[in-house]
Design goal:
About 35% of the residues lie in helices and about 40% in strands. The protein is an alpha+beta fold. A hairpin with a 2-residue loop joins strand 2 and strand 3 (about 45-60). The protein is elongated, with a radius of gyration of 14 Å. The relative contact order is 0.30.
């Protein structure tokens, strides 16, 4: 099984740092990074922030290790780290993930 892991970061630099960790440790085959505007509750009030979102393309069994690595590298007290199962996909794409991500 495969997952997209959705993670947000405080800056482009932080997102790039996390992406490089994922790739260097072969925890992901690819990481997409894009700017987003976030509105959220924090400490009793509504906040807004410019953030960067990441979609980490990986094998499902890597979630725990990815969560550990992201938490260690992340600046947030409570970072968003959520797994989205890939129920179906192009076989060649999923095979590519399997080739890159070490079991």
């Amino acid at each position: 099984m495969h997952n997209f892991i959705y993670v947000t970061a405080s800056s482009k630099e932080e997102a790039e740092k996390i992406a490089k960790i994922m790739l260097e440790k072969k925890l992901a085959a690819c990481v997409n990074i894009f700017p987003i505007k976030s509105y959220f509750w924090w400490e009793g009030k509504i906040e807004e922030a410019e953030e960067y979102a990441m979609i980490i393309k990986t094998r499902a069994e890597k979630f725990s290790k990815i969560r550990e690595e992201v938490k260690a590298a992340h600046s947030y007290t409570v970072p968003c780290i959520c797994a989205i199962p890939i129920e179906r996909g192009l076989k060649e794409f999923l095979d590519w993930i399997d080739e890159i991500v070490e079991v």
